Amino acid sequence: MPSENRDHAEATASGDESENKTRMESESRDLLTVEQAAAYLQLSQSSIRSYIRQGKLNAFRIAGKRKVLIPRTALLKLLEPARAQDIVPEGAPDAAPAPDGEE
């Protein structure tokens, strides 16, 4: 094989390896541990485990292992859009909203 073809083949193989590594890293970030999921949503690990027990959060266990993995898409499904009236501005006192019709 002429040296220029070999160099091209090596560069292509190297490019394929880095592309595969990047894809695998991206895919691995699509599955989070309980600890990572808790940090991601700024919740406690016990809250994440509670959501799993209640069936509110899909999670998977690797056969024969204790490690629980949670798909990022399942985690994002826990989030609900906040209504403007439910959002308390930073620095504002935490006041419970008045029932409808009473102010």
Helix content range: 40-55%
* Number of discrete helical segments: 4
**Coarse morphology:** extended
> At the third CATH level, what is the topology name of the domain at 28-78?
Molybdopterin biosynthesis moea protein, domain 2
Strand % is 5-15%
Examine the secondary-structure arrangement and name the CATH architecture of the domain at 28-78: Alpha-Beta Complex
Helix/strand-derived category reads: mainly alpha
Strand count, sense and barrel status of the largest sheet are:
3 strands, antiparallel
Low-confidence stretches: none
Mean pLDDT across all amino acids: 77
CA distance, first residue to last residue: 84 Å
User: What is the count of β-strands?
Assistant: 3
Strand sequence of the main sheet, in spatial order? 1-3-2
What series of H and E elements makes up the topology?
HEHHEEH
Radius of gyration, whole Å = 23 Å
CATH C-level category of the domain at 28-78 = Alpha Beta
